[in-house]
Amino acid sequence: MSHLDGTLIGGRYRLETQVGSGGMSTVHRALDEKLRRPVAVKLMHRSTAADADHLERFRREARSVASLSDPHLVGVIDAGEDQGLPYIVLEYVDGETLKDRIRRNGRLDVSEAIAYSIEISRGLTAVHRAGIVHRDVKPQNVLLDTEGRAKVTDFGIARSMDEDGLTADGRVIGTTDYVSPEQALGESVGKESDIYSLGVVLFEMLTGEVPFSAESPVAVAMCHVRDPMPDVRSMRPEVSATVAAILDKATAKEPSARYSSFETLGSDLEGALALEASRSGMAPGEATSVLKSLPLETRRKAHLGVGTPRGRLLWAGALVTMVAAVGLLAWTGIHRGTGVRGGTPSGLTQVPLTSTAAHPYDPFGTDGEHDAQAHLMLDGDTNTAWASETYGGNSFGKAGVGVALDAAPGTIAAGLGISTTTPGFTASVWSAPAQLPVAVGSTSGSSSSDPPVGWTRLSPPAPVTRNDVIRLASPSEDQRWYLIWITALPPNQEQVRLSEVKLFR
Questions:
Q1: Residue 350 lies in a domain
Q2: Phi, psi angles (nearest 5°) of residue 481
Q3: Do 276 and 128 share a structural domain?
């Protein structure tokens, strides 16, 4: 029982019981005596109200969401001060937090985890459209009402996208279990930071664990900066390659490699939910409600009558169509990471390569690139790997290095798969028809980061995920050589390691 129970705030809100607390404030269930309805009242601690920065941040929370209206956001009803004590009156959500649910149940059903991610995406879409970055997306800040619907709350450190902010540069704001790399480094953050945090929340819902643990919050934050995300499918094999690809893209280390908006992330999640329902033949919990809210075309792919014999036949037909669609999705450029460990992407065939087909390629250097290890990229064992030379300062000091694949006598490839234990390096794919191009009288091709003249680029430079499939522009004729051209090392690492490479046509 709180000593504030029974207190009348703002002449209208009678506090009943404390339901939460934090570093700046406490939250109380209260009765709106004017409208006779339950509300939540967030009271700032008196000890922090004297701090101008904290006070302004608290007031800004009310301003941030007062104008927003979305079923997946906890709405602000009122705000004010009572005897010098600032307060915010919020919609009262009778339920539990998403964190409580994960702690109680462990990992969630896959379709339910996707469904909650969709609802959170919808709420944060409204937030971003208003020009606000939440900056503290975590399951503790997602409330689940009695109907199971997810609502995002706690905008205590939210900030306008065009606002300089209140904190000094270099200070980490947010909860480090879910903090984005740029936020962990104290850099300016945008909507991509919220997308990263939701990706971590999805990971936790699927596995029951946060991706990183360390001896201190700062150490955890640095894991987000330098360490690759754990492979969700190794922790939970029933997670589809489609969901793993969405997770990879949402949690890319570089903000530019993530989804550009919650609309695009939400759209991919909706397709994944329809696929997951078709795979499992059921949609438990909140997934059923979310399925019914999907766009008509997406909903048609997830025939909801699965419980009947006719429904099961429809599901089977839909599954064939959707599996083909998932294969196509990876090749449209929407998803690069589809997981090559599962074999050949749908609709493609693997190009047979000999055990000596991989050739480390260092046209602008004289030290070689561990040529004797090259066969380890083609041995079918992800526990073995080729490694580049070690480069200090996180830089090659030259245009790049690579691996050339000999597809003799030649083929028109449509994709190239990479498994790596050092995700985050930047690479593009190039081809050549006959002889292996070498550097002659120059240090690069058309730009300082291109390979020697003679290669044709088939994909743009982009960060490579742990298990990636890169779509290739189709060359006009058979090509013998396909080059993985690496121009940037992984964050805070000094070499690149490739466990397996595969060529597809």
A1: no
A2: -110, 135
A3: yes
